[in-house]
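Q: What structure does this chain adopt?
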Amino acid sequence: MSNSTVALPINLIPDEASPAWMNKGDNAWQLTAATLVGLQSIPGLMILYGGAVKKKWAVNSAFMGFYAFACVLVCWVGWGYHMSFGDALIKNIPFWGKPNVALNQQYLLGIAFSGKIPNATMVYFQFVFAAITLILIAGALLGRMNFYAWMLFVPLWLTFSYTIAAFSIWSPNGFLAKKGIIDYSGGYVIHLSSGAAGFTAAYWVGPRYNKDRERFPPNNILLMLTGAGLLWMGWTGFNGGDPYVVSVDASLAVLNTHICTATSLLTWLLLDITFFRKPSVIGAVQGMITGLVCITPAAGVVQGWAAIIMGIFSGSIPWFTMMVVHKRSLLLQKVDDTMAVLHTHAIAGALGGILTGLFAHPRLSFLFYTKYGQYVGLFYGFHMGEVSTGFRQVGIQLLGIFYVVTLNVVVTSIICLVIQSIMPLRMSTEDMEIGDEAAHGEEAYAIWGQGEKLGNSKSGGYDIESSAAKSRKAARQIEMV
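A:
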């Protein structure tokens, strides 16, 4: 028998730019998936927020997301990535990583902690997840938060909350990761975190202007639907990219994501029709979001029929908490959560985490975690005669919920109190009555001819004094006289 060698195709031969350890297909998919997730934020959530709020808040709402995306990236490569996925800050207490830069060539071109991709790709992929978390928090604060306070909130919350949750749950060195928690793509780290933090921050910032809270119609539902569509389709990268390889598990995660989302949307829609006699477009968007959130911790570890069941639950339980419980709770009515992130992200994320503990399939979990018999949903624990393993999984999922909620309530409260000692968290009543023009000196939709009038008021840069601003200044001068 002769020994023969088969030459690799020229495009697969390793070289300095494509080292032997790197899989070109995996790397290409991770870069694509990361960009899809980035598009969920820029422009997805920007458009959704800009269309879902009153006209006078369209610019401010979109710009909160635009700023957060840029700010998170600079903080992420400066210290955030290593605090989330690097070496533990304290060896015996593995819940936070050491701050360090992720900028030098030697590190970025090396192999990542998971998958056959370079660190540069992993840093980019994880950044878009961190960024969208802050933008989701913004959804609870639209229509009244002082933009300068938001500028401080973003880096502080990323540093002292997001990095802790990410390290604890996603880093191979994290204590909840070692215990065996299942969070396939961010049901805990992103959605439960943003929901709990957003609701907490909304409590400290205070409510919107009274007239805004009483009536807050969307200024452009078609624009809102466009943003929602980008969010839905972008979730292909959100859940499909988390195996870090182009695998059958990634394919399953993508399909499950869309199955659950469609089911959730239809469930919410049917409930709206049944109880309110109207097929609400805004309600359908809410149902879409809760479906996306609920399937996220489970996407690649559950079967398709489980995704259907999760969609039914995600379209009904958050609907019930939003439409029934919210109206009967004094606390929920007191806290002004503009985009209802408590219901759509915190409750839907926690629900997804619990259902993952019930439906996680041992073989699918093996494809993702490469460990068999450790990640077993309760129903399969009964089927396999490993009941204690199934109950343990549910217990770990519940522990994760308690940990993330407690972390975010405490840290977010401290951050808000610190910022409040420096500057107001909330815009003044006068500025809230005006909206975008008071916050930024700009409006979303200029009235015919207004642009030329404003443009002629002062030349150069952005120093344009609006007619409304002039009126306010004149009124103050009259009062002084």
